[in-house]
Design brief:
Elements lengths: L8 E2 L4 E3 L5 E5 L1 H7 L2 E5 L6 E2 L4 E7 L3 E5 L2 E8 L1 H5 L2 H5 L8 E8 L5 H7 L3
Antiparallel strand pairs: 1-2, 2-3, 3-9, 4-6, 5-8, 6-7, 8-9
Length: 123
């Protein structure tokens, strides 16, 4: 059974976010494992407006390219430059050092608890 941190919220598109302000956003271990070795990240710039449910970037792996969806509406406050420089961080630490962006949130889109997300992905 997959172990998803209970302090995070999740989306059906395999993104996670925490409750901090600005909110930290990343992709789940399930997404990272399905993608395989991540080799490139395309993320929004600091100051960019993002909308819950909208595409905000791409995650490219040796297997495929997947769109990244924002779980929140708000303004990008920070981008994880370490993950851009070394995308394998997302595979190695999807819930820690491999976070993607931080957003000053004005509205949260539909999110799931860890238990709901685990049930969704068959964990």
């Amino acid at each position: 059974m997959a172990d998803f941190p209970g302090n995070l919220q999740y989306t059906a598109e395999h993104e996670w976010l925490d409750a901090s302000n600005p909110a930290v956003i990343g992709i789940t271990s399930t997404a990272a494992e399905a993608l395989g070795d991540i080799v490139y990240l395309e993320l929004p710039e600091v100051g960019a407006a993002v909308t819950a449910g909208a595409v905000i970037g791409e995650v490219e792996s040796t297997k495929s390219v997947s769109e990244l969806y924002s779980p929140v509406t708000g303004t990008v406050a920070e981008v994880n430059q370490a993950a851009i420089d070394d995308p394998s961080l997302v595979n190695a630490e999807p819930f820690a050092g491999g976070w993607l962006i931080k957003v000053d949130v004005t509205e949260t889109g539909p999110v799931l608890t860890a238990e709901e997300y685990s049930a969704l992905v068959g964990g």
